[in-house]
Amino acid sequence: MTITPLATLEGVTRRYGDVTALDDVDLRIEPGSLVGLLGPNGAGKSTVLSLLQGTRCPTTGTVTLFGGDPAQAVNRTRLGSTPQETALPPTLRVGEVVDFVGRHFADRVPTAALAEQFGFGDLLRRQTGSLSGGQQRRLAVALAFVGRPRLVLLDEPTTGLDVDARRTLWDAIRRQHELGATIVLTSHYLEEIEALAERVVVLGGGRVITDARLRDVLGLVGIHRVRLRSTDPGAVERLAGVVQASRDGDAVELDVRDADAFVRDLVRSEVPFTDLAVRGATLEEAFLTLTADARADVERSAA
Ligand SMILES: Nc1ncnc2c1ncn2[C@@H]1O[C@H](COP(=O)(O)OP(=O)(O)OP(=O)(O)O)[C@@H](O)[C@H]1O
């Protein structure tokens, strides 16, 4: 059975003068998914969101939102979004802001229910200007969900927040997803994508470098990080399959392509070791390898 996507980009190229921000990009957002859009500065993430919001048009290619053209307001009524900047009227109370925004929708989440989902039930009578940065951000993200949107776009939702505020907001976003929301989020924080997204779209230089399930992206790179202690760290580093190594006294940290083969070689070599630990690559490690591979491809084709 084919699932009808909520939004699509087909063969989309977007230029700003001489700059090609997106180059022949295909993307499908399926209902119920939580998609992380990841990429370095200037990769084209915000351009993707602005095309879906209908605030920009593709130079070539087609963008659809709920089957229609996002540039037409009627097709955006079930779209929720939070821009990068939080701008709340400082003298209005939290409850008043939620009611004000909620009144624009025929079927809205009641204020008390939304406040409970986002953990600001005790702040409803506070003026928004008196909230902390994390609380303001949580409110701004909550507002994107008040009209029961079919799709929510979050542009770097936790930028500038401290660790605790970020985690609280992650929990709230995860909860919305569990309640059935479809969410696309961009982030500079790799651990944010790792904590939230099921699917990762890595953009680099305006192209989709990879579009896969999070665990497949991590598996795609295949690098494992090995930690151990050895009285002969140099011998450990010289074993086959070591991509890179660093050392602190007798503690050695290695990236290896095939962890099983490495451990077999290590045991066979009879180099003394203790405290062996092996784990898969983090998204950050996978991401760096993927973008480095893409850069090498671009350089090869340019040459
Ligand atoms: N209005 C504009 N005029 C000219 N160039 C632009 C404009 N908007 C974006 N660009 C360029 O298009 C490219 C993609 O920008 P975009 O903002 O989509 O990337 P991004 O991945 O969101 O970056 P960041 O993480 O820094 O927000 C960049 O080279 C950027 O400089």
Automatic annotation (TrEMBL):
Transmembrane segments: none
Places the protein is found: Cell membrane
PROSITE patterns associated with the record: ABC_TRANSPORTER_1, ABC_TRANSPORTER_2
InterPro entries the record matches: AAA+_ATPase (IPR003593), ABC_transporter-like_ATP-bd (IPR003439), ABC_transporter-like_CS (IPR017871), ABC_transporter_ATP-binding (IPR050763), P-loop_NTPase (IPR027417)
Pfam families hit by this protein: ABC_tran
Location (main, coarse): membrane
Domain ABC transporter: 7-230
Keyword ATP-binding recorded: yes
Superkingdom in the source lineage: Bacteria
GO molecular function, one term: ATP hydrolysis activity
CDD domains referenced in this protein's UniProt entry, alphabetically: ABC_DR_subfamily_A (cd03230)
A biological-process GO annotation: response to antibiotic
Membrane topology note: Peripheral membrane protein
Keywords: Antibiotic resistance, ATP-binding, Nucleotide-binding, Transport
GO cellular component: plasma membrane
PANTHER family the record matches: ABC TRANSPORTER ATP-BINDING PROTEIN
Name of protein: ABC-2 type transport system ATP-binding protein
Record organism: Plantibacter flavus
